[in-house]
Specification:
Helices cover 25% and strands 34% of the residues. It is α+β, with helices and mostly antiparallel strands and 848 residues long. The protein folds into four domains: 200 residues, Sandwich (Jelly Rolls); 300 residues, Neuraminidase (6 Propeller), CATH 2.120.10; 164 residues, Orthogonal Bundle (Arc Repressor Mutant, subunit A), CATH 1.10.10.10; 134 residues, Serine Threonine Protein Phosphatase 5, Tetratricopeptide repeat. Strands 1, 3, 8, 9, 10, 12, 13 and 16 form an eight-stranded antiparallel sheet that branches. Strands 7-6-5-4-11-2-15-14 form an eight-stranded antiparallel sheet, with no helix packed on it. Strands 32, 33, 34, 35, 36 and 37 form a six-stranded mixed sheet that branches. A hairpin with a 2-residue loop joins strand 9 and strand 10. Helix 9 runs antiparallel to helix 10 and helix 11 runs antiparallel to helix 12. InterPro entries: AfsR-DnrI-RedD_regulator, Gal_Oxase/kelch_b-propeller, Kelch-typ_b-propeller. This is Galactose oxidase. It comes from Mucilaginibacter pankratovii.
């Protein structure tokens, strides 16, 4: 009975901690290879201490190769016995025939084989290495093929090292490895599974082993599961002047069109980025203009003049240019219809008017025309998302911002209907209206349509914020249901100065998002990627996941307690930090991302972000090991944490139980509120214990989070130290403050009514601090820094008069008179858009 109960508790606990995640398909470990420097290459180190000296040993694992790398060469696996004999699986792409080879000791064995490239790069492939000591032979099984060599002089061992990729283990160290993905590493002896590393982690440097808890270590990991949830910043480029973007999904190329050259970012080619100067000379681009890639050429749409510019990659020439630098049709939607060889545009915005018109460019007649539409009313709008079926004869338009009259002055609002436009009969049909779950949002320019599944992917963002963020959504074409998937992408939105678009690249099974932001006559371009299928991250789903985990933990603890009574001894409970969220079963996707960017990001996350709490930008908490635990916070736990931590840091007192009830459980009875509070306080305590040097207490009668600031970096605490004494501000402290605010506004993606006062105070204090320093500094002493300071103020207050004057004076001092004039005019436009009237001073008066 005792053994039964203790065993049952252990089995259930293992199921909770390990089995649930293992059911998913989007997992594994990817390896940094020759594309990064040696110090950033990936190592998987697995020890086999529980292996006995028996007649055979079997190692199996699933493997696939990462495509589009320059070098495929090196060690995949090294099995080292007693530090005396090595059995290696290597890949040699220099060989003329077979690339996979086995090495025993110092000798290349007779075993060699290939895996078809379509299988090797496109799916998981199981390999099994059988070491038969009794008969002195090695066998490797790949798919249905088996390869054997006898007489290799095998030596039994008491302990083994199982190493994958690069390693620094004694005389067996190597930095040569091919770019691989690995999962489900298993060791079997005498038909008994003795080790199993699924490699289904989200993050961290631990490879959990689920049979005997013989955990391995990983250096420089690229966890596949995380690439289905976290957008990777693959490329960041800053270019002079305006820029537009177009996608070639067939060849998996992103085109970036600039005034003097074409940049190509190729997913499937090395090098990934190329710059081609125009043979036709400089091309004037219109702010807010758009381009589209059709049949091997790039087309620049200038709807105002009913004109179209064509760029031919073969000749590297544009066929025409434009002279007007203003547009009356910004943020329009466009698509190409194969059936009638035409480009269509829908909606847009310009000169305080939202558009509802449909325009068509016919390649046969080389002419534009306005289409007279029928059917349901299409509300004038911009900032909508549009996608088409495969042929382009049916377009779906969702969301946007506009008004029924088209006039910006008359009740503009967010729009949430899904409209279908049929090219055949030139008609609109309203399909449904989606619900707003939280704050208002608009859409990035494109939708990715899956006609077979009757679904779409699109990017939404709150357009009323400058420091905004893009969130991928997965919705239906037939009903208003949609879910949030993947994490967010930082996005600075300032009307025609900003642009975001998304495309799906089927060969590499990934979404690519491009953001453009123009500032100071430069455009900053960022390219992000996310593997498909993306992980769902809805608030409801997170709440359900955590509820389920807590229920299972409670059951396990109860069973463990019963076992403890019978066994009359204490049992340790597995800590919460090894619990991973479960994942839906999904098809295999090829890992395709910028390895240098990912490696650098991983270095920052696990290095600079160790033991840190960030409240500026996205809320993030990092443990001493550099692991982010924010994902374990349900929406309720997140708000509970923020209430207590802000009152603790700001007031150094904490918050009373009554205040917590008032904020979080105002709709419940006193007894119900007390129960809810107790349960969630216990959960929060468990999570904070993972931080170390940080705990939740009620020693003073108030709930307070005690933090050792010498061990944990808290940006809000650092901010308060800087702004608390503005009379002692110097450039170093201002730089420290800008470093804090570069992450974004204070809790930028979180909205609570009680939080508004904190946010308002933070913004005012930051602006006052910047202006205090600026007013104490002569423009001639540091004009470049003062310009940056003015731009930082605009992030918090886009119509701050003092910042505008400061920027214009500094630019004039540097001799950049046209940029100063542009800064003043942009301020005027923003001022009029907000207040509905012109700014009362002219350019010359502010310089006096």
């Amino acid at each position: 009975m005792r053994l039964f109960l203790s065993g049952l508790a252990a089995v259930i606990l293992l199921n909770i901690l390990f089995v649930l995640p293992a059911n998913a398909q989007s997992y594994g470990l990817a390896f940094n290879s020759h594309e990064v420097v040696q110090d950033k290459r990936t190592t998987l180190d697995l020890g086999l201490d529980n292996v006995s000296q028996k007649d055979n040993l079997q190692v199996s694992f699933d493997i696939s190769f990462i495509p589009n790398r320059a070098i495929y060469f090196g060690y995949i696996m090294r099995l080292v016995g007693d530090d005396k004999q090595n059995i290696d699986l290597v890949y040699d792409n220099q060989a003329n025939t077979c690339h996979f080879k086995i090495i025993v000791g110092e000798r290349l064995s007779k075993i060699s084989f290939n895996i078809d490239d379509k299988l090797l790069f496109g799916q998981w492939n199981k390999l099994r290495l059988l070491v038969d000591y009794k008969n002195d032979k090695i066998t490797i099984i790949s798919g249905k093929e088996s390869y054997t060599e006898a007489g290799v002089h095998l030596q039994r061992a008491k302990s083994y090292k199982l190493l994958f990729g690069a390693n620094a283990y004694r005389q067996y160290q190597t930095t040569d490895l091919p770019p691989i993905k690995l999962r489900d590493v298993k060791v079997i002896q005498e038909d008994k599974l003795i080790c199993n590393w699924p490699l289904n982690e989200w993050q961290g440097n631990v490879a959990n082993e689920i049979v005997n808890q013989n955990n391995g270590t990983v250096t420089n990991p690229l966890w596949v599961k995380a690439r289905h949830r976290n957008w990777a910043l693959d490329k960041e480029i800053t270019l002079p002047g305006d820029a537009t973007v177009a996608f070639d999904t067939a060849n998996e190329v992103v085109y970036i069109i600039t005034p003097d050259s074409l940049l190509t970012y190729s997913v499937n080619k090395v090098p990934q980025v190329k710059t081609i100067a125009y043979a036709s000379g400089r091309q004037l681009l219109v702010p807010g203009g758009q381009t589209i890639f059709v049949n091997g050429k790039i087309y620049y749409l200038y709807v105002d003049q009913m004109s179209l510019g064509t760029y031919d990659p073969a000749t590297q020439r544009w066929d025409k240019g434009f002279t007007n630098i203003a547009t009356n049709n910004g943020h329009l939607n466009k698509f190409y219809n194969k059936a009638d060889s035409s480009i269509y545009t829908i909606g847009g915005y310009g000169q305080l008017v939202y558009k509802d018109s449909v325009k068509r460019y016919d390649f046969v007649s080389n002419s534009w025309q306005q289409v007279k539409t029928r059917g349901d009313v299409f509300t004038p709008r911009y900032l909508a998302g549009l996608g088409t079926n495969a042929t382009g004869d049916t377009a779906y338009v969702i969301g946007g911002y506009g008004s029924a009259s088209g006039q910006q002055i008359v009740n503009p609002r967010n729009i949430y209907d899904m409209m279908r436009y049929s090219v055949k009969d030139q008609s609109f049909k309203k399909l449904f209206t989606i619900d707003v779950k939280k704050e208002d949002f608009a859409f990035a320019n494109s939708l990715v349509i899956n006609s077979k599944e009757r679904s779409f992917y699109g990017l939404i963002f709150p357009q009323h914020k400058f420091n905004s963020s893009l969130q991928l959504v997965h919705g239906s074409l037939d009903k208003p249901a949609y879910t949030l998937v993947g994490d967010t992408i930082p996005y600075r939105f300032h009307d025609i100065h900003s642009y975001a678009d998304i495309s799906y690249f089927p060969q590499s099974s990934q979404f690519l998002t491009v953001t453009l932001f123009k500032e100071n006559d430069q455009t900053r371009i960022k390219i992000y990627s996310l593997l498909s299928p993306p992980e769902p991250l809805t608030a409801d789903g997170a709440e359900a996941m955590h509820t389920s985990l807590w229920v299972w933990i409670a059951v396990t603890l109860a069973l463990a307690s019963v076992a403890a009574v019978y066994l009359r001894k204490k049992r340790a409970v597995t800590p919460l930090d090894v619990i991973k969220p479960s994942e839906e079963t999904t098809p295999v996707a090829i890992l395709q991302t910028g390895p240098e960017a990912l490696a650098e990001d991983d270095h920052n996350r696990n290095g600079n972000n160790k033991n840190a709490i960030f409240l500026f930008g996205d809320l993030q908490l990092f443990t001493p090991d550099g692991n982010e635990i924010t994902k374990y916070f349900t929406p309720l736990l997140k708000e509970l944490f923020l209430v207590i931590v802000l009152y603790s840091i700001k007031l150094d007192r904490g918050v009373s139980s009554e205040k917590l009830n008032e904020i979080l459980w105002f709709d419940k009875s006193e007894k119900s509120a007390r129960n809810n509070r107790s349960v969630n306080i216990a959960k929060l305590k468990s999570l904070l214990e993972q931080m170390g040097n940080c705990h939740l207490s009620k020693d003073t009668g108030y709930w307070k989070i005690e933090i050792d600031y010498s061990a944990i970096s808290v940006d809000y605490h650092n901010y308060l130290n800087i702004v608390s004494n503005k009379n002692k501000l110097n450039k170093q402290k201002v730089l420290q403050l800008t470093h804090i605010t570069q992450r974004g506004n204070f809790l930028s993606n979180i909205e609570y009514e009680w939080l508004d006062a904190f946010k308002s105070e933070v913004s005012n204090e930051i602006i006052d601090s910047y202006l205090q320093y600026a007013n104490s500094t002569q423009i001639a002493d540091d004009p470049e820094f003062l310009i940056k300071l003015a731009n930082d103020i605009f992030y918090f207050d886009p119509v701050n008069e003092e910042a505008m004057i400061l920027k214009c004076k500094a630019l004039v001092h540097l001799g950049k008179h046209s940029l100063a004039k542009n800064a003043f005019e942009n301020f005027n436009k923003e001022y009029k858009a907000i207040y509905g009237e012109d700014f009362e001073r002219d350019f010359h008066s502010i310089l006096e």
